[in-house]
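Re: beginner question about structure tokens

> Can someone show what the tokenized structure looks like for a real chain? I only ever see the sequence side.

Sure, here's an example I had lying around. Input first:
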Amino acid sequence: MYEKTLTQLAVALKKGEFSSRELTTHYLQRIEQADSKLNSFISVTAEQALAQADAADSTRAAGKAGVLTGIPLALKDIFCTRDVKTSCGSKMLDNFIAPYNATVVEKLNAAGTVSVGKTNMDEFAMGSSNENSFYGPVKNPWDVTAVPGGSSGGSAAAVAAGLVPAAMGTDTGGSIRQPAAFCGITGLKPTYGRVSRYGIIAYASSLDQAGPMARSAEDCAHLLGVIAGHDGRDSTSVARGVPDYVEGLNAPLSGLKIGLPKEYFGDGLDPDVEKAVREAVSVYESLGATVREVSLPHTHYAIPAYYVIAPAEASSNLSRYDGVRFGHRCENPSDLIDLYTRSRAEGFGEEVKRRILIGTHTLSEGFFDAYYTKAQKVRRLIRQDFLDAFQEVDVLMGPASPTPAFDLGAKKDPVSMYLQDIYTIAVNLAGIPGISVPAGFVDKRPVGLQILGTHFAEAQLLNVAHQFQQATDWHLQRPAFAEENA
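And the corresponding structure tokens:
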């Protein structure tokens, strides 16, 4: 069963080849057998999953099943899930049981999906390797000595290893697309505002966006169709109709205009990654697309702008964790100040503390205009670069990451870690959608092709990705780990 894509599993369930309970049991057994070697899950909710599976089987027996009814999946542990621990990968929330469901969880439940558990992540989504989790690092199923990427590394590793057919992630600066690339799966970051952020524990509110991670673009199309849409509880949610993302998957690519940003193919890009990406682009040319070079001139400002804006917003968002209302509380505080300082010092990890300090400094008197206001002006220029490029081409293509997955512990310097996001961060600053699809291997580690579109062009991105996957089989490749733990 684990070898099938989500789409194939949906067809098999509809035909009655197996029940949702049988399918869910299969994946729970795989998690129990294999996840101790990957550490991709923080919580496994077996009892709840089997109850949801039984409900899905009853719905199907009554003739009321939808496409995703009975499909097991996992949730990044950043989505509030009622009566389930929602830790955000942090000691600060290790004892937090969410009292309500995030909108994404509500919509998935309404569609009849089965949640098997919550996946590991970089603490408060701050990281590019999934080494910053209170629960320990996640390992890449293609090579357990390598990182799976972050911050949605647990979701990516679980899908790649066949522990679930799909998972939900969030993307603040590349945290869906980069781990999808490192783990050889498909990951979609929608337009900002396309998917509700209600009930998603905030890192940087103007950048965070939820999206699906699965084997194929077709799988992601089914999932996006469920989770997208306006939500009155999220003031940044856009009131815009949701198209049928599956309907247009098979549209031909003849006449598609592809832009290759010259800034994405310069210094710092692994030559073998560049080769794999250019070979993927040549597949598009064989499908009738035309390719031209374009420029995104403010790309080199993306990382410094992001690491002013995101920590500033994180400083504000994480101020609520004070040891008073919920979360970690230090023992025997001597006074209120001691309660605040020790609870936060004990509850937060090093990377989170680093970003809180940066953000607090950025927002302080005398530095706000010099840093934060200037970074927002740069953000506007970056957004305009993309809008100008989309006047000339339909989509942009390039690498999702400058290198394949790197070894666990290889990047001790925070700046070298931040540079891993050079090709993904600008997309969040601009609020446009992006998708990473498997496009080859370098030293037996996956390479991701990143495809970018203008605002609310998810249907086109999914079509472009799906057509590539119809012409190639990179997305069907499985790590040996998946077979060894069958």
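Each token stands for a local structural state, so reading them left to right follows the chain. The chain is about 40% helix and 15% strand.
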